[in-house]
Design a protein that fits this description.
With 330 residues, the chain is mostly beta strands. The protein contains four helices and 24 strands.
Amino acid sequence: MLKSFKFSLVLFILLISQFYAYSEIVFTRSQFTQKGFEDSILKGSSNKGWWELYSRDICRIDLDGTDFMQLTKDGVSYYPKWSPDGQKIAYLSGPTPKISLYVMDSDGSKKKELLSSQMDIYEFKWSPDSTSILVYLKSKRTINPEETWVVSITNGVSTKQMGISDWARGWNHWAPKGATVINPDRRLMDGLPAGTMWPQWSPDGLYIAFIHNGKLAIADTATTGRPEKWKPSKEEPPCDKIGDWSPDSSKILFFAAGNVCSINADEKGVINLSMSRSTDACWSPDGSQIAYTSTDGRKSNTEIFIMNADGTGHIQLTNTNYFHTDIDWK
């Protein structure tokens, strides 16, 4: 009996250690520059760009709060995203309007510039097979500057996929597998409210989430516009910002009055998860937990917290004087 208990305990410890060893959060860590502190804190306002007020760098940390690593040291790097295979990190670097897209190994080595000096990069998404990145950007063209590009991480060759600016506002998206870009279905676009942009596609491609009149809306991509147009149910929750879909496409995170919330794909089961103001949130790879940023109630900076997917079991992961944003979990 005692041997069985000891064996079970050892097995549990091994499983937990493996989970922590292969689960890491990457994030942007920011702090005021001296000029930024004087302008923002002492004067109360500033018209300078963020790069003149803050120093930003990309870091990573294990789920037990150990093995902290600062991956960039240039002061202008931010918005990191893990590749699906967990081997690479893509990120943005540089001030507006000279933003570049980089990729590096998970330990911060082998940094490689994929796109340079763009007017703006609104968003980027890894392909499911980790070979390419879909980039929504504002180029230096004077006519229709908003474009969508596919960038290979191996050879850095950029290929413009289409010339319609509307599609570059989140409509082009990856197929659930491989590295195939799907152009939007015109019937789907026409079936949504006019002006809808930046839809959040579920990983399986069956749903899109978008903001309509300050509320979170979810549409079925297979039926909307065929022929019925999407109509609000009058039960949509208020929404400031849309977060990520869960890995299994069953739920999506969103922010309401700054709180991290979740809702099912059928628009039922709204839960206020954080019960506090937050700036970022993301799912764990298996969808069982959520990482988010918030203040700890003692300082004004944002720290990283972890909780269960149902909003229980909150754990503070960091305790610093830095601002933590742009979190992503592998």
